[in-house]
């Protein structure tokens, strides 16, 4: 599923337990949507800045995304139940290497896709307490369209992304089976080493 993961990373660049379904509501002025629109505009501006090298664009986008992506929660959800067995250091190490692996494996194709994509925020969202699903539609240069749901929670005056669904496929579940198998067969430290070596097969 290389296409799926490229879409996820494209979506992360456009940005940077599942929410219980709630009725769609018109929310064009909701703060969560306002932030996502600002994120999309800011990141696409970087992605389309041809005066920067690819490495510079990826770096700037990564720095911007760091403010809005909750890598700890994303990692915990991707690992699942075994996350409770990780020590504090193992959690820190895993978060770092997982982020590095994903960026290294998919950033090139994702960046190209984001630069050429037409992105629009959809006038709907779901809400469950302080958690929100904000929706967008991405149309590729070839005309392919897919819907992206950004799952966020409110933290102070900002909204942090903790999961992304692309046409219903969840980022945090894409890797979960692999991590579960690795932890069972190799243990936590060797799993971290495998991720650090970018040894997971592309999904």
UniProtKB/TrEMBL annotation:
The lineage of its organism: Bacteria, Pseudomonadati, Pseudomonadota, Betaproteobacteria, Neisseriales. Residues 1-21 form the signal peptide. The keyword Cell division does not apply. It comes from the Bacteria. The keyword Secreted does not apply. This is Toluene tolerance protein Ttg2D. It comes from Neisseria flavescens NRL30031/H210. Gene3D superfamilies: Tgt2/MlaC. Keywords: Signal. Pfam families: MlaC (PF05494).
């Amino acid at each position: 599923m290389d296409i799926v993961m490229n879409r996820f990373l494209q979506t992360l660049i456009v940005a940077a337990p599942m929410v219980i379904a709630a009725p769609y509501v018109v929310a064009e002025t909701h703060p969560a949507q306002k932030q996502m629109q600002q994120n999309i505009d800011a990141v696409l501006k970087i992605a389309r800045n041809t005066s920067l090298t690819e490495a510079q664009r990826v770096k700037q986008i990564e720095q911007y995304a760091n403010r809005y992506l909750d890598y700890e929660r994303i990692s915990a959800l991707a690992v699942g139940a075994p996350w409770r067995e990780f020590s504090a250091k193992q959690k820190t190490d895993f978060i770092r290497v997982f982020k590095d692996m994903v960026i290294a494996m998919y950033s090139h194709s994702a960046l190209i896709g984001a630069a050429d994509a037409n992105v629009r925020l959809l006038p709907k969202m779901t809400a469950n307490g302080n958690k929100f699903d904000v929706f967008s539609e991405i149309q590729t240069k070839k005309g392919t369209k897919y819907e992206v749901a950004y799952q966020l929670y409110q933290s102070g005056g900002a909204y942090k992304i903790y999961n992304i669904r692309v046409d219903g496929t969840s980022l945090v579940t894409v890797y979960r089976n692999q991590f579960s198998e690795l932890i069972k067969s190799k243990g936590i430290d060797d799993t971290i080493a495998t991720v650090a070596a970018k040894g997971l097969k592309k999904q």
